[in-house]
Design brief:
Rossmann fold, UPRTase/APRTase, binds adenine, Adenine phosphoribosyltransferase, about 180 residues, 9 strands, glycosyltransferase, binds 1-O-pyrophosphono-5-O-phosphono-alpha-D-ribofuranose, 7-stranded mixed beta sheet, Ade_phspho_trans, about 25% helix, PRTase_dom, alpha/beta
């Protein structure tokens, strides 16, 4: 199928009341299992962020890895993992945050980003923006410049974009 003929939302499975009542969970596994569609979304993201001239991509565990790592390869840049606390083996900095469902803490290695590097944050989904705001906080603490944020999916009704003031935001699919 040619890229132009994709309706990417057809590849997203919406699961009501997961992981708790009232949440409409956007399941990307139905997209990822289709190699051609997976390649096409990464190519769309690559083309959208290429002009930002980034040095490194940072992606939050776990679904940020399946978007951020292939995007880093497509752009020819490195990948810095942002992990849930307690997983990274080296010296870390941490920050805690609230999710659409629950609370968590994220960590990065102190040497993951060099001061002055231009960083793009990549994730599967922007909801309340808590994950990305916390990721930005960590990257800035390390001296990185967050120049963009790229998502497969944006839940516009949760207004997470407002937390990304001053950062260029790209999302492939928007749910109103
Ligand atoms: O904008 P927010 O309200 O912060 O929500 C979005 C985040 O929530 C999900 O991750 P989750 O923490 O569920 O972890 P997972 O990737 O390990 O499933 C999703 O992958 C985003 O990272
Ligand atoms: N509604 C949702 N679907 C999938 N992942 C999410 N992360 C936060 N909210 C989500």
């Amino acid at each position: 199928m040619s890229k132009a003929s994709y309706n990417f939302k057809d590849y997203i499975r919406v699961i009501p009341d997961f992981p708790q009542p009232g949440i409409r969970f956007k399941d990307i596994t139905t997209l990822l299992k289709d190699g051609a569609a997976y390649r096409a979304v990464i190519e769309e993201m690559r083309a959208a962020v290429e002009h930002l001239k980034i040095d490194v991509i940072a992606g939050p565990e776990a679904r940020g890895f399946v978007v951020g790592a292939p995007l880093a390869l497509a752009l020819g840049v490195g990948f810095a993992p942002i992990r849930k606390s307690g997983k990274l083996p080296g010296e870390t900095i941490t920050a805690s945050y609230d999710l659409e469902y629950g609370k968590d803490e994220l960590a990065m290695h102190k040497d993951a980003i060099s001061p002055g590097q231009r960083v793009l944050i990549a994730d599967d989904l922007l909801a309340t923006g808590g994950t990305i705001a916390t990721s930005m906080n960590l990257i800035r603490q390390l001296g990185g410049e967050v120049v963009g944020a790229a998502f497969l999916i944006e839940l516009a009704y949760l207004t997470g974009r407002e937390k990304l003031d001053g950062v260029e935001v790209f999302s492939l699919m928007t749910y109103e």
